[in-house]
Design brief:
Blueprint lengths: L1 E5 L4 H4 L3 H9 L3 E7 L3 H5 L4 E5 L19 H10 L4 H20 L7 H12 L3 E5 L4 H9 L2 E5 L6 H11 L1 H6 L6 H12 L6 H5 L2 E4 L13 E3 L24 E5 L14 H10 L4 E5 L15 E3 L5 H4 L5 E4 L3 H10 L3 E4 L8 E2 L11 E2 L9 H5 L5 E2 L7 H10 L3 E4 L6 H13 L1 H15 L8 H8 L8
Parallel strand pairs: 1-2, 1-4, 2-3, 4-5, 5-6, 6-7, 8-9, 8-11, 9-10, 11-12, 12-16
Antiparallel strand pairs: 13-15, 14-15
């Protein structure tokens, strides 16, 4: 069969779906991966065939001056009040409405060439199945136009979309009474759908199935039809560094990895990096820190026991490590699970809510976010932009990730805002010396291993394309 996969043009969106694409490809199916033209070479580097959307020489939609900005906090809270969300539900709503609708808006615009290019390619190529990135809903429209079965790929995200859609549906009258749009996701997709005569319904917005790589207890409860799958960590192909050929002798190795996205625009990492390195400095351990110059901007000097390297595949590094300190991203979490090592997850009590920055760009907080900045906009362009938005001092998924790891006994939560350097150091020592954490990490790895592999879900996807199945709950 022919399978069309759509991905948002970022490594954090591409890498999680590569194992699914290869499982389909090695089963004999014809696979194409569609994204912005400027991302085509990156897709090709994974051994998959790219479909280039739009013009490689034009800015990605997120870099345009008219790119969608996060909704105002007052509007976010108006919905939360109307739906009577408790504090945990409110955080999930913020993740959907203020964070994820922004990238979802990029590649569903009918006034830009990318989404129409996708639909026209699907109309010509006639895929049997379309698997679309959670924040690339134009894939659903393309599937409808081509008459294909379709499903969503959670990738490295929680299903904030279905979770929030279900709460909106249950409390729609109250939302309308508050004068708010009762279906923001439908409103986002409708202009493209209307252009091609596609009705906007729940199946278009949430897919026929959802490929869910998260273990029970971490994924959000929704009524969607799920195809559970084991998340295979994939971080690209590169030469195996010689210094990783052997495990360290005499003292344990600890990996420190703080993410691939905020490293592009949070100078000094909110002060978290210096604090973590200070806690590690006095320990008899070898530290491999995968940190960028921007993350190290506030570090005066690296401790003697720390090797800083901007990039090394975690799939190569983690099997040589006794523990991982990380930011709470799902890709990093999954790599640690697969390696069977304990985790120390950085989290704070901050709400996920973005708030507008009031200072000028040059004076704004080091955690200021602006549309396009995560795509590497240069300093001259940045200086001409508005101040942007203050980013909470944590990863989007830090809290659910930290909660899950600690509940499984596979690690601890670190809070750079509240903990002192000695307290962080004590937690690191606990994870290294108490056998229960290694046992918890081992049990978590067995839970992961018990989930179906990407190869094992291929028959379910074949059946979906043939109209013989609705997935697996």
């Amino acid at each position: 069969m022919r399978v069309l996969i759509t991905v948002y043009p970022a490594l954090a969106h591409l890498y999680p779906v590569v194992p699914y694409a290869w499982a389909l490809q090695t089963a004999g199916h014809d696979v194409r991966v569609a994204s912005h033209a400027g991302f085509a070479d990156t897709i090709a580097s994974t051994g998959l065939v790219p479909v280039a959307l739009g013009d490689a020489g034009s800015p990605e939609p997120r870099l345009r001056e008219d790119a969608r900005q996060p909704p105002a906090p007052e509007q976010v809270d108006a919905y939360a009040r109307a739906m009577r969300l408790d504090p945990e539900e409110r955080e999930h709503w913020i993740a959907f409405y203020q964070w994820n609708l922004n990238p979802a808006s990029d590649y569903v615009r009918p006034d830009l060439p990318d989404a129409p290019d996708l639909v026209e390619f699907a109309r010509a190529w006639r895929p049997d199945l379309v698997l679309w990135d959670l924040v690339f809903p134009a894939g659903a429209v393309a599937a409808r136009v081509a008459g294909a079965a379709h499903g969503r790929l959670l990738g490295s995200n929680l299903d904030y979309f279905a979770y929030s859609q279900e709460r909106l549906a249950a409390r729609r009258d109250a939302v309308r009474a508050a004068g708010l749009a009762d279906d923001p996701l439908a409103d986002l997709v409708r202009p493209l759908a209307d252009r091609y005569g596609v009705p906007v319904d729940d199946e278009l917005l949430l897919g026929q199935v959802t490929i869910d790589p998260l273990p029970k207890g971490l994924s959000l409860p929704t009524a969607t039809v799920k195809v559970p799958v084991r998340k295979i960590p994939y971080t690209g192909a590169s030469a195996f560094p010689r210094w990783l050929h052997t495990r360290p002798q005499g003292r344990p190795r600890i990996a420190l990895s703080l993410g691939e996205s905020t490293r592009r625009y949070v100078a000094g990492d909110w002060g978290r990096t210096p604090k973590l390195l200070a806690a590690l400095a006095d320990l008899d351990v070898e530290v491999v820190a995968t940190l960028s110059p921007l993350q190290l901007a506030a570090v005066d000097a690296l401790p003697d026991n720390v090797r800083a390297i901007e990039w090394v595949p975690l799939t190569q590094l983690l099997p040589t490590c006794a523990a991982l300190v990380h930011h709470g991203g799902m890709g990093t979490f999954s790599a640690a699970v697969a390696a069977g090592i304990p985790q120390l997850v950085c989290d704070t009590d901050d709400s996920l809510l973005f708030r507008p920055a009031t200072a000028a760009p040059a004076e704004a907080d080091s955690g200021t976010y602006r549309a396009g900045r995560e795509f590497g906009v240069d300093g001259e362009q940045e200086a001409q932009e508005a101040a942007g938005w203050l980013h909470p001092e944590k990863n989007l998924l830090a809290t659910p990730c930290a909660g899950y790891v600690t509940a499984q006994g596979a690690g601890v939560r670190l809070d750079h805002q509240k903990q002192t350097v000695p307290q962080i150091r004590a937690d690191i020592l606990r994870v290294l010396t108490e056998p229960a954490f290694r046992e918890g990490a081992g049990a978590l790895r067995e839970t992961w291993r018990a989930m179906p592999s990407p190869n094992e879900i291929v028959p379910a996807l074949e059946a979906l394309a043939a109209g013989r199945s609705r997935g697996v709950s």
